[in-house]
Design brief:
Order of helices and strands of chain B: EHEHHEHEHEHEHEHEH
Largest sheet of chain A: 4 strands, parallel
Largest interface: A-B, 39 and 39 residues
Largest sheet of chain B: 4 strands, parallel
Strand content of chain A: 15-25%
Structural class of chain A: alpha/beta
Helix content of chain A: 40-55%
Helix content of chain B: 40-55%
Number of strands of chain B: 8
Oligomer: heterodimer
Radius of gyration of chain B: 16 Å
Strand order of the largest sheet of chain A: 2-1-3-4
Amino acid sequence: MNSARIANYGTKLRIGLLIPCRNTICEPDAAAILPDGVSTHVMRMPTLGTTLDALMAQAPELGRSAQILAAARLDVIGFHCTAASTIAPTVGRDLATCLRQATGVPVVSTSEALLAGLAVFQARRILLVTPYTRAINEHEIEFFAAHGIEVVDHVWLGHSDAAGMSSVEPQEWIARAEALPGDSADACVLSCANIRVAPILAELEQRLNLPVIASNQVMLWHCLRSAGYCEPVFGYGNLLTQH
Amino acid sequence: MKSWRAKLGFLVPAGTPTVEREMMALAPPGVSVHFSRMVGRGADGTLKGLESRLISQIEHMDESAELLASVRPNVIVLAHTATSYHLGKDGERELSERLSNKLGIPFISSFGSVVTALRRLDAKKVALATPYDESLTLRSKTNLESHGFEVLNFGWLPNVRSIFDETDERVYGLGRSIDVPQAEALFISGVGLPTISVIGALEMDLGKPVVSSASATMWNALRVAGLKCPITGYGRLLEIIT
């Protein structure tokens, strides 16, 4: 009768996540990655627009979703969709500002987290590995370029649906990343909150001999650190152990 | 992590921090747990404004459930006992049937799970402990009685400011003080009340089954999803695999 696990009662921090309604990977990743005393709370977002105008038109609706989430008395909220938050250079920051105004709670977006994570490693030349279509990759490459980061090589798997993205086996991400010529890169980004990469982050860093940043890992890191939690978290790459 | 056994979906009231924590802790290997918040107005965790919040949540239930349904879970649980009390036996059955049919996913509730759990434990005479006020506690009692249970004793925690912030010590003490020898099980109501860290000890010390809204929720969600995975440490209910 001693096998009871202690519920993670969030005595140190409560992190709220606004996630795309079809995402099935973010919650398991958060449960795995977040340390004792940090709990995570979720509100699902309706399907997000794929153009800047369509996305910004959803800001009031997203504000209402964020207000519902904020009822859980959170320390920080993550607006968490990589593709949406990188659709234009400042859209992640702009939406985070809207949601912060709607809730009174600090809000960070995936795109801001990616930039903050890359800044830690002073990464200016990156490899980009995604489950997306080529068009989405092109948007993300433009996003990084606007922030002074060059994507030196990239690969996309051509998935446009959430189930396809989450179906890719963790080991395949290693193969895809290793297949890119990474000689001149100083970091590798595995982009998308709905891919199963948490189990392979540490291994991939060793194999590539590069820092590896992934959407869920970097979002949780950014939420932890921006809310003042500074302890190392082990098992998911250098970002969480060293920074 | 991949949910190679099942995905369980939980609809929670906006303000609760408890359900995600407790369901993540209870979830067996290969089972992923997914959440969304019910649209509803009014502060959570307090009794003030509860009625209007419940009505608002029920009005928006379809849109809340549809967002969660998009993860294609094996089951969706309405994880808010007070909403069930407001709906009553017939209202809840109607809602569950309608949403199960509409979504093509079994739609169950925490309170319905408690009813199923107490029956599975052959407990007809129960003691009822709540974090509510007198009026909601009486509503809970009436709901249990409408399902054929005899409530031998009942009572509530005094001086609750927010049920989410209640302590192991107070929940344990509540259970001890409400149980009576003739009761065949103790039921602690309220999914928002943290209970899973105490029900194992409470059950040991009382020598009878202790069911909380949370333990019944996970047990029934696994059962409805077709899984047979006993979980130890939280009372005998979660060790029963049918």
